[in-house]
What we know:
This protein is of the alpha/beta class. 42% of the residues lie in helices and 13% in strands.
Amino acid sequence: MKNWLSTRKIILVLCILVIALAIQFTTPPTYDPPQFPNGKKFAFAIVDDTDGATVENIKPVYEYLEELGIRCTKTVWLLPTNDSTHWPNRGETMQDSAYREFVLGLQNKGFEIGLHGVRGGHSERGEVISGLESFRELFGQYPRIHINHSLNKDNLYWGGSKLGVTPFRLMYGLMSDTPSSYGQDPASEHFWGDIAKEHVSYVVNFSFHDINILKINPAIPYHDERKPYVNYWFHSADGGFVDSFNDLISEENVDKLESQGGVCFIYTHLSSGFARDGKVNPEFKKRIAYLASKDGWFTSASEILDYLREHRNRDDDISFRERIYIELRWLIEKALYGST
């Protein structure tokens, strides 16, 4: 009888411990809304990946954004793809003269140009270095933002390498066949982590289904000592295609972002259905116009990240609890929605 009671006590203690840990690591962090420049009520940046982009399919979208006064971050490829069989690798690059002229025009108008790897497809170290030098020559500086691309082996801490907790990596392996990356591995021919650390300020890692990224992690941008080749990480809201983008910027969500004094970095592909036959998607036009009518700070991702980093009262390193919460939440969302 006494042994049974002892066993019950042990089980009870373990249950309480599990519940306590669950509460500790699944409770969203609290945050104090930042004071944005010029009294703006929230901050919003589009981060546009270049997959499938051509002058024809993105120019109308950028013209409409410019008309609304929204400047954003657009990524580019410097080199042509070496694997066009993988559809996300297709799209124009800075080797295409008309596309190059268009992108340089965007930069002159105040849009930020970032890197989506040097090409759609795997690149070895020498190719990455050559591509980065081409970027600097074209745009006058190295890219401040890098966004990993699809299955590229030269990605930084991608696939299972995103996750720092071994059980989480095992869980990820059951949900995804995205391979790990080698851009951070000094033994690999795809290594360029040291170059990234020298020149690139920010890299995005997890995408979430919430418009307010500060609500998920008020520490952005943050440094993770377990991933030393990235200076600062940040997260994005997952608006990868026109329908998911439109869902995220519903009037209800925009009002929520404003009332919470939040920050949104919305990840998308403006080449994916935002314009057809030269006409911008009408629902996107309606919703982005409502967003633009608000008193928000609409600018590049790097400018917002710089501001957040310079106006906070904490150090740059992420805590263990914060890392567990972010990774666990992302895994749950990936299981439910297929987050990137």
